[in-house]
Amino acid sequence: MEHIRTTKVEQVKLLDRFSTSNKSLTGTLYLTATHLLFIDAHQKETWILHHHIASVEKLALTTSGCPLVIQCKNFRTVHFIVPRERDCHDIYNSLLQLSKQAKYEDLYAFSYNPKQNDAERLRGWELIDLAEEYKRMGVPNSNWQLSDANREYKICETYPRELYVPRIASKPIIVGSSKFRSKGRFPVLSYYHQSKEAAICRCSQPLSGFSARCLEDEHLLQAISKANPANRYMYVMDTRPRLNAMANRAAGKGYENEDNYSNIRFQFVGIENIHVMRSSLQKLLEVNGTKGLSVNDFYSGLESSGWLRHIKAVMDAAIFLAKAIAAESASVLVHCSDGWDRTSQVCSLGSLLLDPYYRTIRGFMVLIEKDWISFGHKFSERCGHLDGDPKEVSPVFTQFLECVWHLTEQFPQAFEFNEAFLLQIHEHIHSCQFGNFIGNCQKEREELKLKEKTYSLWPFLLDDQKKYLNPLYSSQSQKSAVLEPNTVSFNFKFWRNMYHQFDRTLHPRQSVFNIIMNMNEQNKQLEKDIKDLESITAVSGDRPGGQAESTLTTLGQSDATRPTSC
Amino acid sequence: MTWGDQALFIQRTPCCAEVPAWWVQLHAFSVQGLFGKNSEQLTNSSSGLELEGSVRGRRVESPTDNTEELWLLHSNIDAIDKRFVGPLGTIIIKCKDFRIIQLDIPGMEECLNIASSIEALSTLDSITLMYPFFYRPMFEVIEDGWHSFLPEQEFELYSSTISEWRLSYVNKEFSVCPSYPPAVIVPKAIDDDALRKVATFRHGGRFPVLSYYHKKNGMVIMRSGQPLTGTNGRRCKEDEKLINATLRAGKRGYIIDTRPLNIAQQARAKGGGFEQEAHYPQWRRIHKSIDRYHILQESLIKLVESCNDQTQNMDRWLSKLEASNWLTHIKEILTTACLAAQCLDREGASILIHGTEGTDSTLQVTSLAQIILEPRSRTIRGFEALIEREWLQAGHPFQQRCAQSAYCNSKQKWESPVFLLFLDCVWQILRQFPCSFEFNENFLIMLFEHAYASQFGTFLGNNESERCKLKLQQKTMSLWSWVNRPSELSKFTNPLFEANNLVIWPSVAPQSLQLWEGIFLRWNRSSKYLDEAYEEMVNIIEYNKELQAKVNLLRRQLAELETEDGVQESP
């Protein structure tokens, strides 16, 4: 609280970002330890979590006051006009401090209290169990086993403790391979396709430089290949553009030399790095924030930002992966540089295309826990949870969610969850309200004692499940288990409901989706009513002189034939 | 459509051009899109192509012998290309509804024959040789569409409220204005003689007439052609009197000129012009810039070309989409319509709208303003009436505008997708207010198809005068006779419709506008999953209705049982 000098300012104006008529709402601005709150004259409240604030900007003084523009990580942009410059300055300084915490312990999750006891909290954390998930996939089995090599995080700090590897890969091979891979991230199982007996494995780039090789690493890849009895070759996907991978060789890193590995098919897929993605989103937001934007500026901005091009590249990579498994029964090893950004995108999306389970609400949680959280996607750095290096911030996970959204658009019945679910998850990777996304890897999370000190997001989402259900979901359509999306350019659209989720004036005024969702709910209630009514009419009919009837049609008949003298 | 490796043989020699023939009929082993999607292999059947001389219904049949047929109206053919590789000939048929069909025909001579027949048949000179004059409906006509929307009936709807207006038959012989219908609605205070004078002062004789009456506040939208002020600032007292007659005392009106000021100024050199402030002091003039003719046509050509290219990368797609300017036109038209609606509803002012002729952008604006303001125009009947009133009777030259579509290479000045742009704008509003329209997207797509190629006479001719001369009412069937039958209507009804009596303001921000995929990507992608999802949505709605009915019935029965109990207990 020491950062807050002014806790309340009256007569503040909130401008509508896109309105051409300069409409504004007047109200009172409050600053709390966790939120900024604006209450307008109609008592409508706008809450903004400090952690959501990406930037605060004080614009030049105007006649009506001092403008304060706040941009949020959930793409909300608010434009206040504070009457007195002094107040504006105080708020500005407070927000700068409050939105950038130096220590994990100051994040909201450590003070958030949803009034649950310890047992409930722990049960919440146990809701998603990755060991169960591997069991569901069918591992361990005769070809794959649980390795205890990383039980103490000795081989790789950014991997989870429990890793699945080919049964024939001995510990020395694993250790040897890990020394030949960036950050020790050696090839491990990400997804096992039971019926094809094919695997998605993931790792980081090899430290091959221009000519170095590592026999253990070669053995490990061969072991992965052999763990797939149906197939004689495996794919190695380097998700980076060829040039980037080649440039890495000068730094002693690089990519697999096909000559050194037996029976691999090597493939670059050309997804750009985190810096390109960051500036791409930046450009996109700049264009879309323009007032009175013309159609041509919108499309040329969309094009020059490259955003949809990047989304398409991620999607194409995932499709390549899914095809290799589904059509060729080939195992695939995926990596990028460190194997925690693009690799997470491609492995998780590929699994989502292959396995209908990940398209359910619970399955999607499992997928995020597995390919993103446990394998060390650096959420805290990528989302800028703490006051850190701005160059580490990148919308990698947002891109993953957007790819999923594109899939829900092409396959409206294949997903149990709806768009609101994706938006809510996006909200919480930045909110720091729950412990799941805090920290950069499992080891760090354990050290922070997150399971003791914070709550897990997933049980809260499950409690609210009704909001996130797709009314058109059909487990029937899941029988065509593998999704084969079409990635012709025109299938990719700007995701307005994400990047303009708070700009209601840009949205359709009526939502088909909400209507159908409510109707589905109503239908359930009506079914219940009918049952109740039928049992009541049956009872009332079951008296002397009357006839016991329980179904609607017979009741109707008996009604008509009832003697009028009654 | 391609035939794969299968030989294609001609079942009947193409008939020659003396006999009017209207359909290309295609039988095939496999029917698939040009881009190889939705392919469905069929076996045990011969494949063939017929140029049909006899008159038959337009449909895709699946007879018992597993052939698939595709019937294509000759007038739907926009352009054809021929290609030869060795003995194999290929004909590529490009349709006005943007579909592209490829026929592989072994034998150069046969291929040339077919191509020249198709070419001849799809470019008939005389309207009276066109299919609607030979089409005999295979359905029972419940209501003759030619009489569904008579101006008198439309006026009747208003007459109780609009005492200051009258129906004038000054144009009975089409002599005052060739592009107006015989009956128009004008201010009561202005007699027919004055109208004749005003007609000489307006482009094409299109004197200001009532387009829409806003019941809420009694304000109106009028439309006309540009005033013929010329370079020396000619004026017409009757014209001023006519439009002033619509103003309340002390109130100002708005003139929306759909052209930018500089274009309107240039028009003076050719005898046209705009209303001078000095002569129309009670009116505020606003210039907008809705493009016309070839600019729109080029925009369509570019857009469709880009939508048909499946190989382009993201950057190219986005830049071509931008360069086509299609969505810019949509935004401009919608913005102008919103402006008109705003003047009327929010400012409580009457409006006069015109461009140059008053037959294109003017009608886009007047009709869209009504979609925004008037709940009735969002119903099926109301929308049909709107098209009758604001497009057909108002003299939008359909015959000229829709003669060619996106694949034409003739650079005729008068072809232009004005009506398609209007439908696209309606679709944009429909997307933003999906529950406020009684019709669905299919209804709009159907109207687009029939405006360009149809078995019905509705969209033939350029105005009522031409339609009269062609005796369309006697010799052809009206589109509405077919559409307004319950079996057809069910396909066009929006299951989500709930009458909404409010004014609906669409967002015109670029982020809110979208490419109309149902039209432009229709033949380029599979809509299987989207269609299935739509069906599921309809099922949920239907089920909801069923359940509600059941609950109501049970409640009624329960209530009856209870009253019976009451009777029994207290005799």
TrEMBL record, chain A:
<dbReference type="InterPro" id="IPR035998">
    <property type="entry name" value="MTMR6_PH-GRAM"/>
</dbReference>
<protein>
    <submittedName>
        <fullName>Myotubularin related protein 6</fullName>
    </submittedName>
</protein>
<dbReference type="GO" id="GO:0046488">
    <property type="term" value="P:phosphatidylinositol metabolic process"/>
</dbReference>
<keyword id="KW-0378">Hydrolase</keyword>
<feature type="binding site">
    <location>
        <begin position="336"/>
        <end position="342"/>
    </location>
    <ligand>
        <name>substrate</name>
    </ligand>
</feature>
<dbReference type="InterPro" id="IPR029021">
    <property type="entry name" value="Prot-tyrosine_phosphatase-like"/>
</dbReference>
<feature type="domain" description="Myotubularin phosphatase">
    <location>
        <begin position="124"/>
        <end position="499"/>
    </location>
</feature>
<dbReference type="InterPro" id="IPR030564">
    <property type="entry name" value="Myotubularin"/>
</dbReference>
<feature type="region of interest" description="Disordered">
    <location>
        <begin position="538"/>
        <end position="566"/>
    </location>
</feature>
<dbReference type="Pfam" id="PF21098">
    <property type="entry name" value="PH-GRAM_MTMR6-like"/>
</dbReference>
<dbReference type="InterPro" id="IPR003595">
    <property type="entry name" value="Tyr_Pase_cat"/>
</dbReference>
<comment type="similarity">
    <text>Belongs to the protein-tyrosine phosphatase family. Non-receptor class myotubularin subfamily.</text>
</comment>
<dbReference type="GO" id="GO:0016787">
    <property type="term" value="F:hydrolase activity"/>
</dbReference>
<dbReference type="Pfam" id="PF06602">
    <property type="entry name" value="Myotub-related"/>
</dbReference>
<feature type="compositionally biased region" description="Polar residues">
    <location>
        <begin position="548"/>
        <end position="566"/>
    </location>
</feature>
<dbReference type="InterPro" id="IPR048994">
    <property type="entry name" value="PH-GRAM_MTMR6-9"/>
</dbReference>
<feature type="binding site">
    <location>
        <begin position="273"/>
        <end position="274"/>
    </location>
    <ligand>
        <name>substrate</name>
    </ligand>
</feature>
<feature type="active site" description="Phosphocysteine intermediate">
    <location>
        <position position="336"/>
    </location>
</feature>
<dbReference type="InterPro" id="IPR016130">
    <property type="entry name" value="Tyr_Pase_AS"/>
</dbReference>
<keyword id="KW-0443">Lipid metabolism</keyword>
<dbReference type="InterPro" id="IPR011993">
    <property type="entry name" value="PH-like_dom_sf"/>
</dbReference>
<dbReference type="InterPro" id="IPR010569">
    <property type="entry name" value="Myotubularin-like_Pase_dom"/>
</dbReference>
TrEMBL record, chain B:
<dbReference type="InterPro" id="IPR030564">
    <property type="entry name" value="Myotubularin"/>
</dbReference>
<protein>
    <submittedName>
        <fullName>Myotubularin related protein 9</fullName>
    </submittedName>
</protein>
<dbReference type="InterPro" id="IPR010569">
    <property type="entry name" value="Myotubularin-like_Pase_dom"/>
</dbReference>
<keyword id="KW-0175">Coiled coil</keyword>
<feature type="domain" description="Myotubularin phosphatase">
    <location>
        <begin position="145"/>
        <end position="520"/>
    </location>
</feature>
<comment type="similarity">
    <text>Belongs to the protein-tyrosine phosphatase family. Non-receptor class myotubularin subfamily.</text>
</comment>
<dbReference type="InterPro" id="IPR029021">
    <property type="entry name" value="Prot-tyrosine_phosphatase-like"/>
</dbReference>
<dbReference type="Pfam" id="PF21098">
    <property type="entry name" value="PH-GRAM_MTMR6-like"/>
</dbReference>
<dbReference type="Pfam" id="PF06602">
    <property type="entry name" value="Myotub-related"/>
</dbReference>
<dbReference type="InterPro" id="IPR048994">
    <property type="entry name" value="PH-GRAM_MTMR6-9"/>
</dbReference>
<dbReference type="InterPro" id="IPR011993">
    <property type="entry name" value="PH-like_dom_sf"/>
</dbReference>
<feature type="coiled-coil region">
    <location>
        <begin position="530"/>
        <end position="564"/>
    </location>
</feature>
